[in-house]
């Protein structure tokens, strides 16, 4: 009996020690996340940045909001009423939908785009993969300038083809970043599925991930509004207000007409790896297309021996800046949606890198 009592006393003591250690680790983790949040807030304030940032550390996600997304309406960044232009970060979403169609056997990365664009110059030589890696040679200027026309999806795609036929070619298999490549990919999605790009986005991305703040610009509900962008100048915030021009947005299906939040965009990144949009193998396929000539493939840059994914975006004639740097498994990193930047592109990335170093030292790169 005495030995039995000693056993239970020992077991109880062991449980107390275990629970104490578990509790201490939980407090330490919570404290670490709180410190990280505080640092991000101070960093944004010090550098006159306004917007929303999703910070992910060891799989734990938190959102840091700073300032107003619509100053005159007193709508703070992070408000459920606000959505932001995703800019070039949309290209990754378009590439994911193309990858879905490839895995359905509807086309391949080597399919010549003449099938859908017989009137496009050099279309008999250009492949789907070359559009996805910006190695098609297509070079359309003015894609982010207003031409005074509010295009339909089909109208924007036809306009892009017409402009491409009037433009010079930068050379097949040479990298030349151009929005036209992804507008044409949006057109392929429409032609293959028989549905609009907007309908495909809703069925392939929004619904599977249960996104509540992601829309094509023309479908933003009346209960929400797109954010306004600003500059910090002469010692004051919220100067030089600029919003996304509806005509410009309409020119960019698949390349700049999606509006979302940093939180929703992070969920999209998760979906591209956990099987809800793409499996890990499909993501690897998209990021290693045969036609790539640098680290860009499928709408983003894969760096540090394939361990990191990066994308940077802005929106023409506005001050919006979006930047993402995440580990491939989405367990650590940052998604930055700014409506008030300050300084150069590299300076903004450096500010983000300062936060990244505190998320996981030695993991991320400056730009």
Automatic annotation (TrEMBL):
The lineage of its organism: Bacteria, Bacillati, Bacillota, Bacilli, Lactobacillales. Residues 1-29 form the signal peptide. This is Beta-lactamase family protein. The keyword Signal applies. InterPro entries: AmpC-like, Beta-lactam-related, Beta-lactam/transpept-like. SUPFAM superfamilies: beta-lactamase/transpeptidase-like (SSF56601). Residues 37-345 form the Beta-lactamase-related domain. The keyword DNA-binding does not apply. PANTHER family: BETA-LACTAMASE-RELATED DOMAIN-CONTAINING PROTEIN, D-ALANYL-D-ALANINE-CARBOXYPEPTIDASE/ENDOPEPTIDASE AMPH. It comes from the Bacteria. Keywords: Signal.
